[in-house]
Amino acid sequence: MTISNYNFAFNQSNFGKSTRADSVLLSITFLSILFVPSIKIHSELFLGIDEFLVVVMGLRLILKRFFWIDKLILVFGALSLFILVSIVINSHRTDYREYLEIQKVVKFVVFYLFSIFVFKDFTSKKNIIYIVTSSFVILLIFNFLHLFNLFYFNEYVTILYDTDGRDVLNFGKNSIGGPGPKRIVGTMGNPNINAILFLFFVSFFSFLLIERNKVESSWNYLSKNVLQLFFLLSILLVILCQSRTGIIALFVVYILAIFFRRVKWFEILLEVFLIIGFFGLSAFLDTIALQYLFNTKPQLQENNSLAVRLIIWGKLINMWAEQPFFGYGPNKAYIYKEKLYPENEYVFYLWRYGIQGLLAYLAIFCAPIFYFYKRIKEFTFIIFVIIIISLVALMNNPLSNPKISVLFALILGFSVVQFTKIETQSNLK
């Protein structure tokens, strides 16, 4: 077998090929994340179908003796250790909910490994493009039915995806029940998370457009016009989510994609005019939309949503300064009691697990780029996704969201296969 520098070691040298059933299992997982609402267990616990599918994936990996260890696995191993130490040192170590954070890391690793396991043998890029584009079209239809609330779509369908009902019930309303911005919630159950999802689509279509400009590429299955249409529609959906952090990430990814795409100036000009038109369309559909998006004052503390965040961040950082090395652990009891929403994953990891936890979190983004840097221009999709997560994490908790976490794990595993040649034993079934 051939192993790149990214791979660290194998615990087992013989492992078999994935089967069609494994590919179907991975596809079902991907589609369930996008389209199947979580199941309510009780008021504070909702489980997605992926919670059950991950067990099947873990068993398949064991049966196939696929024990892959690489630098990213070591990062997650270190993060699990930091979480455990933080739990043991703090007084709430008898609360079983604390250990569920380690279970989440294990779940992420299983999805990551299973993605590698399947994609090392699943070479049909045409099918991958078909699944992604078909999903995007369905999501496009879903979100427009949601935006216009056709056939009472929000009351009967969209509400199923919003675990607390807050965003759907207050759709088009402000905090006191008056007219407010219509921020599309979609199947993610939250406009900020919905924006991240469509940013992933923006990234994928940007990558495919980059591939269109190459003399030889194994990704060229869609015409340029169709790709540009999907690309622009995904941008429109990000704008309709009205996530300010998401729009900043969109701007960064778009500028970077232009560099890689080497687009002619008149094409850029046309795209920019269309994107400006999307903001105008958003304002036409919702007169409060632009007011919400651009109601940002020069003095940061004067922005209501940011002002609240700054207070929470200041409180958590002051608490962290008292326990800088081990933090306070997951501390779910405190979070639920105080109704704490840090809305900054960097500060959240720092407060929970100390400086080591923050470094491990940063390593999740740095490790793939550091180990792929010589060839990463060949697969820009992963660059865009990492930029999106790292930027959005400044004002949200993307990897704490179970849906985004699973999608990110699958994307990372898929990306590893693009850079790593893995030869399996042909005699194993």
Give structural notes:
The protein has 429 residues and is mostly helical. It has one domain (7-419). The chain has helices at 20-35, 50-63, 71-89, 100-119, 125-148, 153-156, 166-169, 191-212, 224-241, 244-261, 265-285, 289-293, 304-322, 332-338, 345-372, 380-392, 402-419; strands at 7-10, 39-42, 45-47, 68-70. It has a two-stranded antiparallel sheet. A two-stranded antiparallel sheet has the order 2-3. Helix 8 runs antiparallel to helix 9 and helix 10 packs antiparallel against helix 16. The protein is globular and about 60 Å long.
Give the helix/strand layout.
Elements lengths: L6 E4 L9 H16 L3 E4 L2 E3 L2 H14 L4 E3 H19 L10 H20 L5 H24 L4 H4 L9 H4 L21 H22 L11 H18 L2 H18 L3 H21 L3 H5 L10 H19 L9 H7 L6 H28 L7 H13 L9 H18 L10
Antiparallel strand pairs: 1-4, 2-3
Helix pairs in contact: 1-2, 2-4, 3-4, 3-15, 4-17, 5-9, 8-9, 8-10, 8-16, 9-11, 10-16, 13-15
What is the compact description of this entry?
With 429 residues, this protein is mainly α. The protein has a two-stranded antiparallel sheet with strand order 1-4. Strands 2-3 form a two-stranded antiparallel ribbon. The longest helix is centred in the last third of the chain and has 28 residues.
